[in-house]
Structures are given as structure tokens and as C-alpha cells.
């Protein structure tokens, strides 16, 4: 952390409070780690969060070691001064790197699953570690002066840039995605990731100014709990199989849109049903049926990419999906329905499936001058879907 390099003499008054604060933070982090470990169906983001929490627990332990050395509980020797700061800086850099991986996992960036890419991304951590470990000889990042105090070296700024660089990079990428993505539910996640570093950064700066007050550990714990609860909320709001919004999220979004019309745009609801889905399950098994649903969800999401952030994709239940779209004309909704059908056919061919993938799409347009309940609006789309099914069967 910023304050791992501490200046000045040792005092005993703060050690007890500082150590107790770190122990409390370790216990709180332990609760998160325990709950993640007990989850039998972990998402990649939960695995990375567990890694981050574990590293932070080690970091808090290193801070206890530093306080014991700094407070004179053990004889403060030159090797111990170096060692206590090596642990804090290296573990903080690793924690920041783990946060970057976690943020990318939450944002569904598949690149971080590549070990070569992860190794390249970790280069700043290795550089920081080498500088810390060799500081005893080189003094480039810190050294012990003639008074026995630890002083920053010429390259000390690197130890600050590395952890903050990871956090700032993650935030910038998240905010950029938030303003460019079309998915309503995911936008909230992007903003959450973007705002995550605020507490650690602000409290880290505060601890740099008042370095014997354990501000940063409280900020890290608050941020970790925030991320954990946000991930849990996301898991609750997403369909676990297809990773699109579930029915409850769809109802929330649709309720909002039915109350606030956008000038110049109409509200459409497209209900999508998989043709002959029962035969896929009966012939090839439910595992293959689930695979088909995942592919169809991807095809729908692909058709709903656009520059105006006007689409909301959800799984309505079983083999039915719902798209809520704001468009200028019904012809645009009809075009979107055809794009969905086309994408579904293509994705089936691309994966060399032993069966044909096809969907039927029903469309309903909301009339703001004559408001109706959500279920009635959905029923209109369902009625149109039934007509399309009959046409396809004929």
C-alpha cells in the first residue's frame, strides 16, 4: 500500500489498535472466503474474488508484521525493516493484479483465461517484486538511512504506480464498456467495477498521510464486501444457464419502460420460442437441450447489438426468451425478429449440430395511450407467436 513505506520512529501506543484492526479485517474477509468456498457452483468471477480475498488476508497479516517491527515489539533490525516492507508491497501488487483479473472476469473477457495473456499482464507485479527483493542491495525503491529509518529510493514511485495502475486500468475499461454496451443489467455491473477502487484509493491516500491509522484495511474490506454482494445480486438477476437476464429482471425493466416513454420511439416486446425443442430433449437428452438454449441465447444477443442501447434480452422460462426493444417503427421490430431467426439458424450450422435450430418470434407493440398490465402486453406477443407457430407448421 502507499503507506507500507513508513517514516519516523517507533511507538507502542498504536500497535495494539493497528494489529486488532488488521485481525478484524482478516476475520471479515474470512467470512467472504468461507461463503465462496461453500458455493458448489462457482462462476469464474467468484473464483477470482476468492483469490483476491485470500491475498488481501495475507496482506493484512503482513501489515501486522510491519506494525510489530515498527512498534518495537521485536528488535527493529535492518533485515526486518526490509522484510516487513517487501511483504506489504508485493502482496498489495498481487492483490491489485487479482482485482484486475476479477474485473475482467465479471465483464466476461475470455482473454484472461489464457495463461500466456495472464503472464504478460502480471509483468508489472514481477517487476515490483524484483525491485522490492533487491532493494536491500540496490536501494532503488527504498533503503535504510544512517538513522535506521526506511527512506524512499529513486524508483519508489513504481511501487505506487503498479497497484494503482491495475485498479485505474480496470476502472477505465469498465466505464468505457458501460457507455458502449447494449445490455441493461450489465451496465450496472460495469459502473460497479468502475467505482470499486474509490474506497481503497481514498483511504490509501489517507493512510499515507496518517500512516499509523489502518484506513486502507477498512477500505479494502468495504470494497470486497461490495463486490461480493454485487456478484450475488448479479447471480440472482441472471439466468444461470444462458447468462441473460431472468424473468424478474425483465419485469423490472419492462415496468420502468412502460412508465416512461421515449419521444420518437415505440416499445416492442418480442417473445421467442424454440421450434421442436421437446424433440431435441427427447432425442439427444437434456444436456444437449441446455446446450441448444445457450447457443440460442448467444444468437439473440448477437442480433441485439446496436449503438442506441435499446435492447434488453431475457429468458422468460423453459425454451422461451423475451427481447424488449425501443424502435421507431414496427418494421424495425420485424427486421429484428428476422435477424434473430437468421442468427439462430447460422449458429446451429456453425456448431455442426445433428439437428436444425429454429425459432418463432411473436411481436407486440405497447400503446402508451391505452396502458395495460405487463401480463396483457406479454399475452399480445404470445398471441402473435402462436400465429407464427401455425404458419411455420403449415
Automatic annotation (TrEMBL):
Domain of life assignment: Bacteria
TM spans (from-to): 15-36, 48-68, 80-102, 123-143, 155-176, 188-205
Signal peptide (UniProt feature, chain positions): none
Record bears the keyword Cell wall biogenesis/degradation: no
Record PROSITE patterns: GGDEF
Keyword Transmembrane on entry: yes
Keyword terms: Membrane, Transmembrane, Transmembrane helix
Annotated GO biological process: cell adhesion involved in single-species biofilm formation; negative regulation of bacterial-type flagellum-dependent cell motility
Record-level GO cellular component terms: plasma membrane
InterPro entries reported in the protein's UniProt record: Diguanylate_Cyclase, GGDEF_dom, Nucleotide_cyclase, Rev_trsase/Diguanyl_cyclase
Ranges where the GGDEF domain occurs: 265-394
Pfam families xref list: GGDEF
GO MF, any single term: diguanylate cyclase activity
This protein's name: GGDEF domain-containing protein
Lineage, top ranks: Bacteria, Bacillati, Bacillota, Clostridia, Lachnospirales
